[in-house]
Amino acid sequence: MTSTLLTGIGELWTLDPALDDPARPGGVADGQVVRDAAVVLEDGVIAWTGPAASAPPADDAEDLGGRAVLPGWVDSHTHLVFDGDRAAEFEARMAGQAYAAGGIGVTTEATRSAPTERLRTLTRARIAEATRGGTTCLETKTGYGLTVADELRAARLASLLIEDGELDEATFLGAHLVPAEFAGDADGYVDLVAGDMLAAVAPHVRWIDVFCEEGAFTPEQSERVLRAGAAVGLGLRVHGHQLGRSGGVALAAALGAASVDHLNHLGAADVEALAATAVHPTRAADTPGRLAVQAGPTVATVLPACDLSTRAPLAPARALLDAGAALAIASNCNPGTSFTSSMNFCVATAVLQMHLSLAEAVRAATRGGALALRRSDVGHLGAGARADLHVLDAPAAVHLAYRPGMPLTHAVWRAGQRVV
Ligand code: NIG
User: pLDDT tier at 245 (50, 70, 90 boundaries)?
Assistant: First the structure.
C-alpha cells in the first residue's frame, strides 16, 4: 500500500457529496472548494483532503505549484467506436445545410468495413485524446454497426477496453438509425434491435440508448427498444429533442431513464417534466437483472460542442437548472455532430454561452456526468472516491472560461495513477 501526498494546491474542488448544500442543488457549497489544500491518494482512491497545513504524512509527495485541482471530467455521452471522416458534411453544414440523422449511415458504412484491430486502435486513440483533456471517466456507445454482428463487435470492443481499465461505461445504441437494408421497414428493424441484436449485445453493456427523433425512431419505436432493454437489466438513456420536440423527454421521464441528452428544443412542460424527476426519482422497471440501475432523476445532459458544431439553438441549461433539473455536460464526441472530446471546451461554452456559473458548469461536467451514469465513485474527490484528478495549469478553475481554448490541462491522475 503506497500513499502519495499532493501539496501546493491553490484551489481544490472536492465537490464532496457529504458537503452538498440542499439550497444549491446544481451549484457548489463553500466547503467543497478548499484553498491552499492537499490531497492524499492511497490504493487508487482518495484517502484524505483538506488544508495543506494539516496534511498527514505519506510515502511520496509532490508539490503542484499552486495549481487548481478538480475531479477528472466525467463524459457520459460519446460515440467513439467508428471509422471514416465526415469533414465534407461539416463543411456543407457550415455553408448552410442542416444536420440530419442520415449522416449516421455514412459512418456506418465505413465502420462496417473497418478491420477490428483498426477500430480498436482508433477507439483507443480517441480515449487517449480525451484523457489528455482531463477526462477520467468515459462512456461510449455502439451505433455505427447496425447489424447483429457489427453491434456485437463494437460492444465487445468497448467491454474489453473497460476490462483493461481504459474506458468506463458501454451503451448499446442499435436504435441509432434504420440502416439502408431496412429502408421502408423501420418496425422490422426495431424487431431486430429489441430481439436478436439486444440478446447478443446485452452481456457486454450496462446501458441501452435510442435516437428518438424525426428521421430516426418514433417515440413508440423508442419505447419498445427501451422496454426490451430494461427487461434484460440494462439502464436506459435517450437521445431526444435534438432536431425538434421529438417526445424523447416525456418518454425518458416516464420510463425512469438515467439521462436524456441533447435537449435543443424544449417547451416549458419538458423542462418541468425533467425537474419533476429530480424531486420524485423513478426507475425503469424492477428488473432483477444483473446490472439493474439505481433510482435517480432523469438527468438533463447538454452537449455544448454539438450545439455549436450543428449550429443548433443551445440547449437551455440555465432554464433547466433554474427549474431544479439535474444537469450534466458531455462532449458527445462523434464524427457527425461533435468531433471533439474536449470537456474543457464544453465547460467554457456552458459558462460563456449557456450562462452557467463556472461552479455550475464544473459540477455538471463531474458530479452531473456521474449521476447520469448512476455512479457515486467518480465526479468528486470525497474520501473513498476513485483518485481521478485533473490538475490545471492555472491557479483557479475559473481560468477554464476566462482563458477559453488554452491548453490548461497540466496533469491527470486516473485511479491513483498519473496518466498525463
Ligand atoms: O449524438 N444524434 C444522434 N447521434 C449522434 C450523431 C451521430 C452522427 O451524426 O454520426 C449525436 O449527435
Answer: very high
